[in-house]
Design goal:
- The chain has a 6-stranded parallel sheet with strand order 3-2-1-4-5-6, sandwiched between helices.
- The protein has 2 domains: 5-16 and 133-259, 3-Layer(aba) Sandwich (Rossmann fold), CATH 3.40.50.1000; 17-128, no CATH class.
- The protein is of the alpha/beta class.
- The protein contains 12 helices and 6 strands.
- The chain starts with a strand and ends with a helix.
- Pfam families: Hydrolase (PF00702).
- Pathway: Amino-acid biosynthesis; L-serine biosynthesis; L-serine from 3-phospho-D-glycerate: step 3/3.
- It comes from Ureibacillus acetophenoni.
- One of its GO terms (molecular function) is L-phosphoserine phosphatase activity.
Length: 262
């Protein structure tokens, strides 16, 4: 296998996004518990449920699925991006953020819209303060930089994905190309965004390898263009026999060891 280009996913591959969101929920819900008799974990679960319900009710939902933006990114994003769909999200999101927290409180018997608004703002700030990166991310990128062309391929709104890169400023410098689904118009697993990556990087499918944590986006999408892939399965999830996976590893370090054998 003659690989000269490595394509990395961002969220939960290089950045530990789930932990960043979890920390923001923990801090915000713990603060709420100092003001009301509410159990922080119960509030988190309630807000997550209300956020999903609201998010799926908006006219922009199908677009967020196409681009790959989840409800919890909506809880801290601004979506100040140029497409009409993002502009519509920009209008909706401030109220969505307030309502998710207000409705989450209300479901627990606390009718306090002012606190809901305060918690929504606090969550945004807590998320910005918690940019977790996996402990081996930089060491692995250091090893690969200069030996391979590196491409970052991430689903999401450009405004939000660029903000993540701004608060972890070391990451962008490793990459020859940064491609965000919201700029392209479709997200992983659509084959067209992988074809665009190959065109941008000047490679054939056999010359690249996709590295990501998500079977349904990173691995499925790369398989659609016959590109080799590596599933980073840190959580010991079950394999899906219908999604062709070339390699499976449990960490970036294990991936680095694999690359050296290819």
């Amino acid at each position: 296998m003659s690989i000269n280009t490595i394509i990395f996913d961002l969220d939960d591959t290089l950045l530990w996004d789930k932990q960043s969101i979890q920390t923001a929920f923990d801090k915000t819900c713990e603060y709420a518990a100092t003001l009301h008799n509410v159990e922080p974990k119960q509030l988190e679960e309630s807000v997550r449920a209300e956020a999903r319900k609201l998010y799926e009710s908006y006219e922009t939902y199908d677009y967020t699925v196409l681009i790959g933006i989840n409800p919890f990114e909506g809880l801290w994003g601004t979506f100040d991006d140029p497409t009409p769909q993002f502009q519509k999200m920009k209008e909706i999101i401030p109220q969505y953020q307030k309502d998710a927290w207000t409705n989450g409180l209300k479901a627990l018997g606390i009718d306090d819209p002012a606190l809901g608004a305060e918690l929504s703002e606090r969550f945004v700030e807590e998320r910005k303060k918690a940019p977790y990166v996996y402990e081996d991310t930089y060491a692995v990128l250091d090893e690969l930089k200069g030996r391979y062309q590196l491409v970052l391929l991430t689903n999401g709104a450009p405004s939000l994905q660029n903000l993540k890169l701004e608060i972890t400023p070391e990451i962008r410098a490793y990459f020859d190309h940064v491609i965000i689904s919201g700029d392209f118009g479709k997200g992983k697993p659509d084959a067209s965004i992988f074809e665009y990556v190959m065109q941008k990087a000047g490679i054939s499918a056999e010359e690249g390898i996709m590295v990501g944590d998500n079977l349904n986006t990173d691995i499925l999408g790369s398989s659609r263009v016959s590109m080799p892939n590596v599933w980073i399965n840190r959580e010991n999830k079950a394999q899906n026999p219908e999604i062709p996976t070339t390699y499976e590893v449990t960490s970036l370090t294990e991936f680095l060891n694999l690359v050296k054998t290819l």
